[in-house]
Structures are given as structure tokens and as C-alpha cells.
Amino acid sequence: MSRILVLALVLVFCGGLVSTVFAQADRTQELVAALDKTKYKKKEKRDLKVEIYVDVKNEAVLKKNVTEYSGTYGDQNAGSRLNLKVASDGSAEGSGFDDGDKGELNFRLKNARVDHAMLTATKVFENGETKKLEAVFVNRTVSSGTNAASITSHETAYGLGYIETYGPESTSRVFLELIK
Fold first, then answer.
1. Cα–Cα distance between 26 and 32 in angstroms, integer?
2. Three-point CA angle 154, 69, 27, nearest 5°
3. Pairing of β 80-86 and β 150-165
């Protein structure tokens, strides 16, 4: 009888663990999809015609050794930077800065963790403000040209992507490329 009870408890525990793993993987894929973007604009005036197409696709990068996510990540304009160190158990620590309305805002990460290519943490800024961070490690490919049938360039980079929220209705896709 006690063996059956132990077996039942193990099955319940494993079932809960499996559902947690799938939920984390689902959230990772949701965030990857939210980072994708396609933009097409066409304008014509008299003899002048301008046509621009940009397609941004992201693919989650799942590494066997989570410590390989460690590094310095930054954007092209030096508006944001994150120095990240990930331990073998998935716990992480980091610090960096964001470029805000009032200049550079330094932060450190609190309760940081990497699981299934996703970094979750709380950014704690020097002024005491906090902001939730949910980011995913991705290969980001930007294809551009005059239209979808006429692509002239493909650029792929590895980095960290997330959605930045500015108030109730304003968001921005952020990509921090691995610098080193």
C-alpha cells in the first residue's frame, strides 16, 4: 500500500515538473514570436517610386551548457548594455545600463535565472525603481530589400531580445547583440 502511495506521489510530482517545463518552453516561443516583425512601405509621387521591405525573424538558441549564455550584450547605438554571468545551475547575476529620458540609467539584476533560452529577472535601477525582465537568447535574421520577392541582404546575429514597455500602450522590440 505504501509503495502505491509513493508511486502516486512521484507521478504527481513528475507531472507537475513536466507541465512547468512545457509552460516555460511555451513562454519562450511566445516571446520569440513577439520579436518577429515584417514591414513593407511603398510610396509613389510623379516619377519617384520608393519601395522598402524589412523582415525580422528570431529563433531561440538553446545551449546545452547554460554558462555559455554569459557575456556582454549591447545595442548598436550604445543605448543599452547588459553584462551577464550565468552559473551552471541557471542562476545568474548581471548589471548594465539603459538609455532613458534622463540619460543613462544603471541597473543590476535581481533574482536572475536562465531556463530554456529565457532570462527572467528584475532590473533594479540606482534610483530604486524596478522593472520585470523577460528576455530570450536568439539568432536574429534581418532580411531587407525592395519587396518580399527582391531581398538584397540577410544579416544574422546572436543576442538577447525582449519587449520593453513604456506605459500602458507603448512597447518596443529590443535586441542586444553579443559583444563578447
1. 10
2. 80
3. unpaired
In whole angstroms, give the CA distance from residue 154 to residue 8: 53
The grid coordinates listed for 169 are 500602450
Q: Which of 129, 71, 133 is nearest to 100 (CA)?
A: 129
Model-level pTM?
0.80
pLDDT, tens only, 151-167: 889 899 999 999 988 77
Grid cell 528584475 — which residue?
Answer: 122
Annotate 124-146 with DSSP letters as a single string: EETTS-EEEEEEEEEEEEEEEEE
Task: Indicate the Cα dihedral angle 176, 27, 23, 81, nearest 10°.
Answer: 20
* Most distant pair of Cα atoms in the chain: their distance: 86
